[in-house]
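Folding follows sequence. Below is one example:
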Amino acid sequence: MTFKQGDRVEFRSSRHDDEVRTGRIQAVRGKGNGAQFTITDDEDQQSVNVLSHQIQQKL
């Protein structure tokens, strides 16, 4: 699945003990399985850095 800046996604946050969270992608670095994303968490409005395999799905 392809994710881009502005997409709303469900992701596993290592900062929150792998809890499933929702947020909006603010920045994308790289491509494919090695891509890294900066996501603003909907719940606490903090920026979280995640890898592509931590993103569950688009919302």
Summary: The beta strands are 8-13, 19-29, 36-41, 47-51, 55-58. Residues 8-58 form one domain. The chain has a mean pLDDT of 93. The first strand starts at residue 8 and ends at 13.
